[in-house]
């Protein structure tokens, strides 16, 4: 089961957003666990913490540094601790080891050998460092955006309070992975910081840290960090609570306090007057997750965009970005593949430039030869209109990214036909609708699309990715 599913299940089952640090810190160990052997004492304490909290938390977070500091016995203690956590509860390993040259091997160790579900990472080595962790589709990362460390302020607030670096980290890291795989770690006692981050990342899980200052504005922190569903925020159990002999009772009362705020947020959200579009909330689109991921990696943008025809649309689709996100690219290929498997053809053709990577990926997957019609014919060399080998009389399935007017794909198909090839089927990811399919039919082609633009906007609106204004701009277009 994926990290995201495990987390959601536990939040529901235990009705809790609380997570507990499993940190063998000898300085914090209660006196009653002291023994000749510090490891034994720490182990007894950790077992007590797990037993007392297991029904009231959504995740555990061991900090690797505390185990490493205990040497080899410390690493053995880590394995014992990981094994003591019931399998259905996700483990987030706090291990901000951000060295590019170790990330691949470290990701393999923590995810396949130690079997943790998620890990915290520092952002400074950039996406290159994070990708080796994201290639494990069932695992997740939490990117450190902000800490409450006073000494970090000059960096985090740089260059201005209006546009601080920590918000840039949030914006940038959102492009690295989907909400299911990439969350944010935010250490702050300031609700305003949390509110700014939540506004930029409404769809992300935020793991709050260091919120328990002496004069903690706990309620304001919850209100700032929770999303509009009263969810999306992981809240740490205060460290001193873990030394209490009444741990189970104390954690339950903290959970109730949090759930009270969550209920208020949900109640407030449901009483405001919302215009309900004509969409069914029960029938999720079969490609629901893919649509959200395409949006989250920046392939689907809402705004005012001029098209090649001069028309202004309330959205722009840039599928060229997919190639930089291997896991999304893979899913896109699978979606095309499902359609192509039911069609008859000898060769695949991609329309340059945007669809060449997709056609190449599909040709490899389907073990089918590929060709492509050139966009512009070279004035030198072979002067070929079509690249790749083919035999006149063969049938070609044409692959493109999006159908707006159908002009570019039909121009490509005509070049193939003028070389003696047959083109019956055109397969795209997105159909803009508004009569383009009928236009294809009139010209002798069958059009197939993974999803239509209205399926995309409905899904994004239902999932809260776009607001009512953006949704209406599309509906009214
Ligand atoms: O949101 C958009 C709109 C268009 N494109 C590019 O245009 C062609 C499709 O336009 P036609 O009018 O059907 O020729 C598509 O292949 C893209 O290259 C886009 O990327 N995003």
UniProtKB/TrEMBL annotation:
Keyword Glycosyltransferase: yes
Cofactor: Mg(2+)
Cited InterPro entries: Aldolase_TIM, OMPdecase_type-2, OMPdeCOase_dom, OPRT, Or_phspho_trans_dom, PRTase-like, PRTase_dom, RibuloseP-bd_barrel
Family per record: Belongs to the purine/pyrimidine phosphoribosyltransferase family. PyrE subfamily.
Function: Catalyzes the transfer of a ribosyl phosphate group from 5-phosphoribose 1-diphosphate to orotate, leading to the formation of orotidine monophosphate (OMP).
Quaternary structure annotation from Swiss-Prot or TrEMBL: Homodimer.
Protein name: Orotate phosphoribosyltransferase
Source species taxonomy: Bacteria, Bacillati, Cyanobacteriota, Cyanophyceae, Nostocales
